[in-house]
C-alpha cells in the first residue's frame, strides 16, 4: 500500500492516477477543513500522533512507500514524515509544486514569515487583501490602522484584525473576479503556495500594478523530491 499525505490538489491527482493504475492508495488528511474535497480511493482523516505514531502506522499497515504531497506551508508534517519514514525504513518522496516566479510588471515584496509580513505591511498600503489562510490571521490581528479583506475556506477563529470584511471561498479563482477584489485594496498578501489553483490573484495584481507581499516557504527536510504528479507516479511505480 502507498500512503499519500494529502490536503492539496496534487495529492488528489496523484491518488486518482495511482488508483487508475490499480495501485492501492490510502490518502491521509489532517482534518482541518470542515468539508474537504476528497480524493478517490481510501481516505483516512486526522493526525497520527507525531513521528512515532506515523512510523507505527507505516509498520502496522505494511506501507511500501510514502508520498508527502502536503501543502508547502504545512510545517510540521514534513519533518514528521521524514523521521517516520527513516525509522520504519519506508521510502519517502516529497511531491511539491515549485514556488511562483515573478513576471514582467509584478511589484513583489518578500517576507520570511507571517510576522515579518505583518511588520512590512503598513508601509505598503492601508487596505489589504489577506489570503494567507485561516491559521495565519492572528499574525495580523494587532494591525488596528489597516483594513483587511480576508479570504479563507472555513470561518476563522479570533483573534482577527479589528477592521475587516470576510469572504469564505475556495479556489480555483478567475482573474476577472480577482481583479474586482483587488480593485478594493492597496496590497495583496499571500503565501508562496505556487500552482495554478490560486494564482489568478497574482495576474490580477500585475494588471492593476498593485504590490504583492509574498511569504517565503518554510524550510523542509532534504528528501527526494518530485515537482509534478507524473514524476511522482513514476517514482511509485518503480517501487
Ligand atoms: P502541519 O502544521 O504540518 O501539521 C500539524 C499536524 O497535523 C501534524 O503534526 C499532523 O498531526 C497533522 N497533519 C498534517 N497534515 C496531515 C495529513 N496530511 N494527514 C494526517 N495528519 C496530518 O500542517 P497544517 O499547516 O496544519 O496543514 C494541515 C493540512 O492542510 C495538511 O495536510 C496540508 O496539506 C493542508 N493544507 C495546508 C495549508 C497551509 O497553508 N498550511 C494550505 C492548504 C492545505 P500528527 O503529528 O498528530 O500526525
Can you characterise this structure?
By secondary structure, this protein is α/β, with parallel strands linked by helices. The protein has two domains: 2-98 and 219-237, NAD(P)-binding Rossmann-like Domain (Rossmann fold); 107-215, Rossmann fold (3-Layer(aba) Sandwich). 29% of the residues lie in helices and 22% in strands. The protein contains seven helices and twelve strands. It has helices at residues 9-20, 50-60, 75-88, 114-120, 175-182, 200-208, 229-237, and strands at 2-5, 25-29, 42-45, 65-68, 92-95, 107-111, 127-130, 147-152, 164-168, 187-191, 211-215, 225-226. The strands form two sheets. The protein has a six-stranded parallel sheet, with helices on both faces. It has a six-stranded parallel sheet with strand order 6-11-10-7-8-9. Strand 4 (65-68), helix 3 and strand 5 (92-95) form a beta-alpha-beta unit. Helix 1 packs across helix 7, helix 2 packs across helix 3 (75-88) and helix 5 packs across helix 6 (200-208). It is elongated and about 55 Å long. The structure holds NADP nicotinamide-adenine-dinucleotide phosphate. NADP nicotinamide-adenine-dinucleotide phosphate binds next to strand 2, helix 2 and helix 3.
